[in-house]
Design a protein that fits this description.
- The chain contains 24 helices and no strands.
- Helix 3 packs across helix 14, helix 6 packs antiparallel against helix 24 and helix 14 runs parallel beside helix 24.
- It is mainly alpha-helical and 529 residues long.
- The two termini are 44 Å apart.
- 54% of the residues are buried.
- The chain has one domain: Up-down Bundle (Sodium/glucose cotransporter), CATH 1.20.1730.10.
- About 3% of the residues have low confidence.
- One of its GO terms (cellular component) is plasma membrane.
- Belongs to the sodium:solute symporter (SSF) (TC 2.A.21) family.
- Keywords: Membrane, Transmembrane, Transmembrane helix.
């Protein structure tokens, strides 16, 4: 255990020092330097950071837990993401970069008005602060507790242990954001990203060998011949994690918001050195997402072969695999990588929330004439406050209902649809006024709430599939009867080169083919036949 702790600490300390050194050429006293990495990020940093900001223990633990208790249909959360990332590369990112915006609400202000920007900023802040940030801390604390047996060593109950580990994670995250801004965070992500993929694939290989009594070939035979029904990712069953009819309907809406509008994700691409690097980074992340099925979902099926249906809490499956399969000498290494995934998601959301607060609320409302140095100072103060609130809330998630991963996705459904609709309509229409957004947001929240009360038996992705076109049509209708006095014209204020990547289209086709191939593999026409 001592060796595990030592390697864990040394690896994380080394990566932190490296990340801070990477910021030496960035002026952290400017808002672009602190919040957007000086708009100097290249494809590898963007792609790995997009992946790591998305990946954390709620994915690694939650998705493997879902495949353990269900089928491979849970892989839809990962494998279909490239569609949204391609849309980000070709539709959303060129418009964002050409306008020179720093945040999505900043774009909404240019398109509609300042009040719209502030409303959306507040919605995003509430979503991150009350659900996402505390959940990352909570799920990360559970994993680290199982790997290091912290509660047993300290003799504390689960509530106290979660609080103490959350305090450690939150403090480490504040060090990245406080001292290095976005550049330090994405520099660490690049290293953690490679380690996470390699470590996750190693667990997959070790799992195959375990069910094959030391033989990879026997393990593959066992996996594909016994309980073949668990390898099927295509099912229309409403009780499935993701029914296939929802993939190109409600799930597409959910993914478009997450990958093309969600500030914590898009902020990585907004820091691109140029459009070509941003497109490369987005498509690289798409490749990462398709192969993620092998370390985010399949280990859960392998765990079913190893342990049967005897594990009461599916969320404990992945940590159990780490402890049982990983050689002792490498447990600390992989724990450090896993900690990096936790840290990255927390860093990404934390950096985005302070950007939203500082640039969308503090400056326009309280200090319109604030200088960059003051904005950075304010952001650093806010990050400490927000992290403290998240740390306090995290242990109370113990009392939340089961199925935390789906619960989080459903909670984001309260505001993701109208925000996505506002951006899409803003791109496509010149006459829709700010009033349309201000009507669409409360209308969606009211209807989504009604759906939870009266139509809870219907998968929430189907609800999103109906409410998104409703929000778009409502905004267009208001634009028809109460159009803007003057047609909107997006002013070009590009701060980077907007020349697209020459291989972007070919790369997109290859990514789509890879995605289709993965679905064919895990279908009744593939391994599940």
């Amino acid at each position: 255990m001592l060796w595990i702790v030592i390697t864990f600490l040394l690896i994380n300390a080394g990566i932190f020092i490296f990340s801070c050194l990477r910021t030496k050429d960035i002026n952290l006293k400017t808002s672009d330097g602190y919040f957007l990495g000086g708009r100097s990020l290249t494809a590898l940093y963007i792609g790995s950071s997009l992946l790591l900001t998305n990946l954390s223990t709620e994915q690694m633990v939650g998705l493997n837990g879902q495949s353990y208790s269900g089928t491979m249909s849970a892989m839809a959360w990962e494998v279909t993401a490239p569609i949204a990332l391609i849309m980000l590369a070709f539709v959303f990112l060129p418009r964002y970069l050409s306008s020179g915006v720093s945040t999505i609400p900043d774009f909404l202000e240019k398109r509609y008005d300042q009040r719209t920007r502030q409303i959306v900023s507040i919605l995003l802040l509430l979503g991150y602060a009350t659900s996402f940030l505390p959940t990352v801390l909570y799920s990360g604390a559970l994993v680290l507790d199982q790997v290091f047996s912290i509660s047993s060593v300290l003799g504390t109950n689960t509530f106290t242990t979660v609080f103490l580990i959350s305090l450690f994670i939150g403090s480490a995250s504040c060090c990245y954001i406080f001292f290095g801004g976005l550049k330090a965070a994405v520099s660490a992500d690049a290293i953690y990203g490679i380690g996470l993929i390699l470590g996750g694939l190693f667990i997959f290989v070790l799992g195959l060998m375990a069910i094959g009594d030391g033989s990879l070939l026997n393990g593959y035979t066992e996996l594909t011949s016994v309980h073949k029904e668990k390898l099927n990712a295509i099912t229309a069953d409403n009780s499935a994690e993701v029914p296939w009819p929802a993939i190109l309907t409600g799930l597409l809406v959910n993914n478009l918001f997450y990958w093309a509008v969600n500030q914590s994700i898009v902020q990585r691409a907004l820091g691109a050195k140029n459009l070509a690097e941003g497109q490369k980074g987005a498509l690289l992340a798409g490749v990462f997402k398709t192969i993620g099925v092998f370390y985010l979902v399949l280990p859960g099926v392998i765990a079913f072969h190893l342990y049967g249906g005897n594990i009461a809490n599916p969320d404990t499956v992945y940590p159990k695999l780490i402890v049982d399969l990983m050689p002792t000498a490498l447990v600390g290494v992989f724990a450090a990588i896993l900690f990096g995934a936790i840290l990255s998601s927390f860093n990404g959301a934390l950096n985005s929330t302070i950007t939203l607060f500082t640039l969308d609320l503090y400056k326009p409302i309280y200090k319109p004439d604030a200088k960059d140095e003051e904005l950075v100072t304010t952001g650093r103060v806010f990050v400490v406050v927000l992290a403290a609130v998240s740390i306090i809330i995290a242990p109370f998630i113990l009392f939340a209902p089961s199925g935390l991963y789906n619960y989080l996705q459903e909670m984001f459904g309260f505001f993701n649809v109208p925000v996505l609709a506002a951006v899409v309509v803003g791109f496509c229409s010149k006459k829709v006024p700010a009033l349309a957004v201000k009507w669409a947001i409360p209308a969606h929240i009211a209807l989504y709430t009604v759906s939870k009360v009266f139509f809870g038996h219907i998968h929430f992705l189907y609800i999103l599939a109906v409410l998104f076109p409703f929000s778009v049509l409502l905004m267009l209708f208001i634009g028809k009867i109460r159009p803007r006095a003057r047609e909107f014209k997006l002013e070009r204020n590009a701060r980077v080169d907007l020349q697209p990547w020459k291989h972007a289209k070919l790369s997109s086709i290859l990514v789509i083919c890879l995605m289709a191939g993965i679905y064919l593999l895990f279908s009744p026409w593939g391994l599940a036949q």
